[in-house]
């Protein structure tokens, strides 16, 4: 527990000032966190980031993360982000031939999906901060409330397993408790913040985000269980890897935009 607290304080001392300041520090932070998360995902399949396919994945990630205000660089070249994805697919497939299937079609699919999984989430981290600091804190607090509520309520009254094949300790009661705790946080945001949403709008959005935040956690649990790893990494002592800490938010940040809350 002591190690978890120390790690949380150190990470918070880096993460929170960068987010509060906004702009370039957030972009740099997103590139750093995204690159580490990609390394962690590829490592699960025993693919190295410091290899030809790993470097292709990393370059594609950096293109995906490019924020709106810098996309005129791509436009000046007459290239869109989706075209970089297509180029990456062709390069990956070419590499399967060059390696005589040591890097195979399944590895191609995994590399592309892993890059999109990490890239889309952290891209919308940048975009969410551009929409306003309040939305970043809203997303963080509802996920913290969801996680805490699911854990404590699940331990107190949880009896029915939610998805034992994926995450044996999660319960249906905890799942519902997490959503309820997130709604309580949403009420506090309506009352005490300048978030541009009505109580009804924020409540509906919070229910959706809390549910999908928990699904994001289950997705990473399924990934780790499939590849038989306990944590995505060990860069955060007591907490695991970057992906372990941001798995829920990788679902929440894009959804903030897709449900038109911003």
Automatic annotation (TrEMBL):
<comment type="pathway">
    <text>Phospholipid metabolism; CDP-diacylglycerol biosynthesis; CDP-diacylglycerol from sn-glycerol 3-phosphate: step 3/3.</text>
</comment>
<dbReference type="GO" id="GO:0004605">
    <property type="term" value="F:phosphatidate cytidylyltransferase activity"/>
</dbReference>
<keyword id="KW-0594">Phospholipid biosynthesis</keyword>
<dbReference type="InterPro" id="IPR000374">
    <property type="entry name" value="PC_trans"/>
</dbReference>
<feature type="transmembrane region" description="Helical">
    <location>
        <begin position="6"/>
        <end position="34"/>
    </location>
</feature>
<keyword id="KW-1003">Cell membrane</keyword>
<keyword id="KW-1208">Phospholipid metabolism</keyword>
<keyword id="KW-0443">Lipid metabolism</keyword>
<comment type="pathway">
    <text>Lipid metabolism.</text>
</comment>
<feature type="transmembrane region" description="Helical">
    <location>
        <begin position="77"/>
        <end position="96"/>
    </location>
</feature>
<keyword id="KW-1133">Transmembrane helix</keyword>
<keyword id="KW-0812">Transmembrane</keyword>
<keyword id="KW-0472">Membrane</keyword>
<dbReference type="Pfam" id="PF01148">
    <property type="entry name" value="CTP_transf_1"/>
</dbReference>
<feature type="transmembrane region" description="Helical">
    <location>
        <begin position="199"/>
        <end position="219"/>
    </location>
</feature>
<keyword id="KW-0548">Nucleotidyltransferase</keyword>
<keyword id="KW-0808">Transferase</keyword>
<feature type="transmembrane region" description="Helical">
    <location>
        <begin position="108"/>
        <end position="126"/>
    </location>
</feature>
<feature type="transmembrane region" description="Helical">
    <location>
        <begin position="132"/>
        <end position="153"/>
    </location>
</feature>
<dbReference type="GO" id="GO:0016024">
    <property type="term" value="P:CDP-diacylglycerol biosynthetic process"/>
</dbReference>
<comment type="similarity">
    <text>Belongs to the CDS family.</text>
</comment>
<protein>
    <recommendedName>
        <fullName>Phosphatidate cytidylyltransferase</fullName>
        <ecNumber>2.7.7.41</ecNumber>
    </recommendedName>
</protein>
<keyword id="KW-0444">Lipid biosynthesis</keyword>
<dbReference type="GO" id="GO:0005886">
    <property type="term" value="C:plasma membrane"/>
</dbReference>
<feature type="transmembrane region" description="Helical">
    <location>
        <begin position="174"/>
        <end position="193"/>
    </location>
</feature>
<feature type="transmembrane region" description="Helical">
    <location>
        <begin position="46"/>
        <end position="65"/>
    </location>
</feature>
């Amino acid at each position: 527990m002591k190690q978890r607290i120390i790690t949380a304080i150190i990470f918070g001392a880096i993460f929170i000032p960068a987010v509060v300041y906004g702009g370039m520090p957030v972009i740099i932070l997103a590139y750093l966190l995204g690159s580490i998360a990609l390394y962690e995902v590829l490592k699960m399949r025993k693919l190295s980031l410091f290899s030809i396919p790993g470097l292709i994945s990393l370059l594609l990630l950096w293109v995906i993360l490019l924020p709106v205000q810098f996309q005129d660089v791509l436009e000046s070249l007459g290239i869109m982000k989706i075209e970089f994805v297509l180029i990456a697919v062709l390069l990956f497939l070419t590499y399967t031939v060059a390696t005589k299937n040591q890097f195979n079609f399944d590895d191609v699919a995994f590399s592309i999906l892993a890059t999109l999984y990490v890239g889309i989430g952290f891209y919308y981290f940048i975009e969410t901060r551009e929409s306003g600091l309040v939305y970043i804190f809203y997303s963080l607090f509802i996920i913290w409330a969801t996680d805490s509520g699911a854990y404590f309520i699940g331990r107190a009254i949880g009896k029915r397993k939610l998805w034992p094949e994926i995450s044996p300790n999660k319960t249906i009661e905890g799942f519902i408790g997490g959503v309820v705790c997130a709604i309580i946080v949403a009420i506090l945001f309506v009352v005490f913040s300048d978030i541009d949403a009505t109580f009804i709008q924020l409540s509906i959005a919070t229910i959706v985000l809390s549910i999908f935040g928990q699904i994001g956690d289950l997705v990473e649990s399924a990934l780790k269980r499939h590849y038989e790893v306990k944590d995505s990494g060990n860069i955060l002592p007591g907490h695991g890897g970057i992906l372990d800490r941001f798995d829920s938010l990788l679902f929440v940040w894009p959804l903030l935009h897709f449900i038109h809350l911003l």
